[in-house]
Amino acid sequence: MRTTIRLDDALLRRAKAAAANSGRSLNDLIADALRLSLASRPAPARVAELPVFTGNGLQPGVDLDDNSALLDLMDREPG
To answer: What is the pTM of this model?
Structure first.
């Protein structure tokens, strides 16, 4: 696939010199560097599995966007 990237002039000069010194094309040098960079990244963290509780869903009058009212409701005694 063909794409365009923008590199700082000094970085491009260094990359061209490194490619020439190693007998590879600039394309191969950049592709190898990108593969190495992506391979050295840690795998994404697993998403935690949250417990699910059964019930009748959200209680009438509960507004999840109102933190203060929600905290008041949670502080009330059951019943």
So the answer is: 0.50
